[in-house]
């Protein structure tokens, strides 16, 4: 499994993977995250066009079926995230330059996506931030298992709270 930058041709399969992620959340009792059409095809298209959207693929499968080889997706944005400008009930661990992981989902057929996503993202920038809904227990567990630290609460564009996480650079 590898991570590569997404292309517009990946949009249809990307939406299928995002829907699988949404269904997984619903199955775990999280009916409040990713509602009202979020994330939309337009948002994902914009992320792709800006070079900020990535797919997690099985290289061997890609040789025979490019679309079905996509098993996970995520957005990775390097630079200040306006959503993270205000944090309550805590603080960021530092103010070093960072990248933010958003809109992560898997089709559920493979394990280890977050770890490989992190390896890829950390090859670009060492400090990583992300957030998740309080009902998304599996993402919280995965983040904490991989060394993210809870930093507080941020609010996304629709005003709903999210648990904010940061993974700091490994000591040299």
Structural features, described:
With 172 residues, the protein is α+β, with helices and mostly antiparallel strands. It contains five helices and seven strands, in the order βααβαββαβαββ. A seven-stranded mixed β-sheet has the order 1-2-3-4-5-7-6. The chain starts with a strand and ends in a 5-residue tail after the last strand. The model has no long low-confidence stretch (mean pLDDT 92).
**Strand line-up of the largest beta sheet:** 1-2-3-4-5-7-6
Distance between the termini: 28 Å
Strand content: 25-35%
Helicity level, as a percent range? 25-40%
What overall form do the CA principal axes indicate?
A: globular
What's a concise summary of this model?
By secondary structure, the protein is of the alpha+beta class. It is 28% helix and 26% strand.
Layout: helices, strands, pairs:
Blueprint: E1 2-5, H1 11-27, H2 41-49, E2 53-57, H3 59-62, E3 70-78, E4 99-106, H4 113-122, E5 128-132, H5 137-145, E6 149-155, E7 161-167
Parallel strand pairs: 4-5
Antiparallel strand pairs: 1-2, 2-3, 3-4, 5-7, 6-7
Features:
single chain, alpha+beta, 26% strand, 172 residues
């Amino acid at each position: 499994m590898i991570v590569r930058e997404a292309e517009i041709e990946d949009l249809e399969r990307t939406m299928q993977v995002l829907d699988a992620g949404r269904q997984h959340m619903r199955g775990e009792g999280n009916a409040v995250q990713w509602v009202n059409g979020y994330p939309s095809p337009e948002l994902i298209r914009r992320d792709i066009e800006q070079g900020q959207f990535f797919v997690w693929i099985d290289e061997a499968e890609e040789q025979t079926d490019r679309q079905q080889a996509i098993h996970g997706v995520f957005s990775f944005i390097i630079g200040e995230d306006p959503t993270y400008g205000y944090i309550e009930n805590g603080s960021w661990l530092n103010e070093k330059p960072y990248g933010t992981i958003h809109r992560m989902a898997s089709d559920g057929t493979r394990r280890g996506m977050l770890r490989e996503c992190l390896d890829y993202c950390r090859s670009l920038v060492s400090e990583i931030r992300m957030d998740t809904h309080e009902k998304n227990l599996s993402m919280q567990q995965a983040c904490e298992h991989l060394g993210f630290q809870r930093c507080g609460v941020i609010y996304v564009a629709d005003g709903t709270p999210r648990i904010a996480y940061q993974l700091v650079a490994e000591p040299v």
